[in-house]
Specification:
By secondary structure, this protein is an alpha/beta fold. The chain has 13 helices and 22 strands. The strands form 5 sheets. An 8-stranded mixed sheet has the order 8-9-11-10-14-20-15-16, with helices on both faces. Strands 1, 2, 3, 4, 5, 6 and 7 form a 7-stranded mixed sheet that branches. Strands 12-13-17 form a 3-stranded mixed sheet. Strand 10 (259-270), helix 8 (290-305) and strand 11 (310-320) form a beta-alpha-beta unit. Helix 2 packs parallel to helix 3. The longest helix is centred in the middle third of the chain and has 23 residues, at 169-191. It is elongated, with a radius of gyration of 24 Å.
Length: 503
């Protein structure tokens, strides 16, 4: 289910004359009619000749633009791949632009098992950005094809850099490899078809992947869910022959100073239930489990990195289908912990399973709770397809926005307006599962906040990530982001854990 294939990352010096590879990757600055190679490893004469060829071919240096040329004297590489950096001056290059350029090059490599990346890399931070871009960009999903592509997948990447011998480089490369593996694993889960990835098989995939890691996995089946009162999961999953699951994944280092709970929405397919969605575009609803996939792979990466912070993931898995046992509009469900919810729209199902997860996670009194979900179409209307919305406790929200900016995953902090709370009042239950349509992303977060527990009379610090747009890319690939499952927010969650562990 989750491809375990890996990528070898290493750093070498800038003298590449004797280094063999299928492809040598070089960056090109954005220009007005004359191509300029950034950090060229060749002689001035060879560089000038290559730049003339690129100019004649019309290469502009814009982001994601790639041009191939045959290998030249001064390198043993068979092919040269020139990738646009998207900036006119090297002094303007950011780590994220470099990360995207490396990822775009890795994504567009053809017939290359090995590659040398001779991109601007004058610091360990730049090496890390290039390594992450390569690890994120070198992805291909062929799990369901009867015949795999004849084109090789990048297996070994060397980064040419003047800081190759720095003592900090090995750790940076290891981190990049772990992050890349986690993001690619998230994409594998998202891209899996719903007839193969359903709550039970998802739980099995988590157990199998976790075996070599310092993780404890507990699976709550439908009987345990009924016994413990997980009414949200049972109500949403009631219409499907694929019974719901709650999967608890724990990473517990002995001397952890802090405890983070991650709650992930795992609707393995969302038809809308009785409130059926339109058929157009419904195929993409296999991605409605992206939050659970990201939460799990974030915990896996955190455990591989050996961070000194306890992390517990609660994966709320259900399939939302119409059927004889489906929840109907007007039904009342009793959530874990006892609160009752009137279901006015069965297509607002994610918040129901997440309510169970938040209430269950609260019992352990973690220091921070973060839930992550492809929760609302309103998120895309408000922030587009590439920017996640983050709401909740101001400190946690702002910290998450800050680390997301640092790692290159777009996010925007949003408020929780108090005037939205009355709109989720119900005439027959404690709450209704839908409320004010305008500002629907925030209304959903206001609903979720009702299930965040307290410690000593104060709400547990909590944030909600709605990434309905960024989780699944139905447009063209760009940078290190492929079509379909993106693996968005895994790196943000890991970076947040790193920050918490260091404080």
């Amino acid at each position: 289910m989750i491809n375990s294939s890996d990528l070898t990352l290493s750093a070498i010096g800038t003298d590449i004359k004797r280094k063999s590879a299928d492809t040598l990757v070089l960056g090109v600055l954005k220009n007005d009619g004359k191509a300029t190679i950034a950090a060229s490893p060749f002689t001035s004469e060879t560089t000038s000749s290559l730049e003339q060829s690129l100019t004649a071919l019309g290469m502009s240096g814009k982001a994601d633009e790639a041009t191939l040329l045959p290998g030249v004297e001064g390198s043993k590489a068979k092919v040269l791949l020139f990738i646009g950096l998207g900036i006119a001056k090297l002094s303007d290059l950011t780590d994220e632009q470099l990360r995207r350029a490396a990822g775009s090059a890795a994504r567009q490599l053809s017939n290359a098992k090995t590659a040398i990346f001779a991109l601007p890399s004058e610091s360990v931070e730049r090496v890390a950005a290039i390594a992450e871009g390569i690890a994120l960009g070198s992805y291909r999903y062929e799990n369901q094809r009867s015949k795999k592509s004849d084109k090789p997948v990048l297996a070994e990447a060397q980064i040419a850099t003047a800081v190759a011998t720095s003592k900090d480089v090995p750790a940076a490369l290891k981190r990049a490899a772990i992050l890349g593996r986690a993001v690619r694993g998230t994409r594998d889960l998202i891209n899996a078809p719903a007839n193969l990835l359903y709550p039970e098989s998802f739980a099995t995939a988590v157990k199998d992947y976790s075996k070599p890691l310092p993780l404890k996995v507990t699976v709550f089946d439908e009987k345990r869910l009924a016994k413990d009162g997980f009414g949200g999961l049972l109500g949403v999953g009631g219409g499907s022959v694929r019974q719901p699951r709650m999967v608890k994944v724990e990473y517990s280092p002995a001397k952890a100073a802090k405890h983070i709970a991650l709650i992930g929405k795992g609707i393995t397919f969302d038809t809308g239930g009785t409130s059926l969605k339109p058929a157009a575009g419904m195929h993409a609803m296999k991605s409605d489990m992206s939050g659970a996939a990201a939460a799990f792979q974030a915990v896996a990466a955190i455990s591989e990195l050996g961070l000194n912070v306890k992390v517990t993931a609660w994966l709320c898995l259900a399939e939302n289908m119409p059927g004889g046992a489906s929840t109907r509009p007007g039904d009342v469900l009793t959530m874990f912990g006892g609160k009752t919810v009137e279901v006015l729209n069965t297509d607002a199902e994610g918040r129901l399973v997440m309510a169970d997860g938040l209430a269950a996670a609260s019992l352990e009194k973690p220091d921070v709770m973060i839930d992550i979900a492809t929760l609302t179409g309103a998120q895309m209307l408000a922030l587009g397809l590439r920017t996640a919305g983050i709401m909740g406790n101001e400190q946690v929200r702002d910290d998450l926005v800050s680390v997301s900016d640092k790692v290159g995953e777009l996010a925007w902090g949003m408020p929780l307006p108090e005037e939205l709370r009355p709109s989720i009042e119900s005439q027959v239950a404690d709450l209704a599962n839908i409320g004010e349509r305008m500002g629907g992303m925030m209304t959903a977060a206001v609903f979720l906040e009702e299930f965040v527990g307290e410690v000593d009379g104060k709400k547990i610090p909590w944030a909600h990530i709605d990434f309905a747009g960024p989780a699944f890319n139905e447009g063209s690939a760009w940078g290190y982001t492929p079509k379909n499952g993106t693996g968005s927010q895994v790196r943000t969650l890991v970076a947040y854990a790193e920050q918490l562990a260091s404080n």
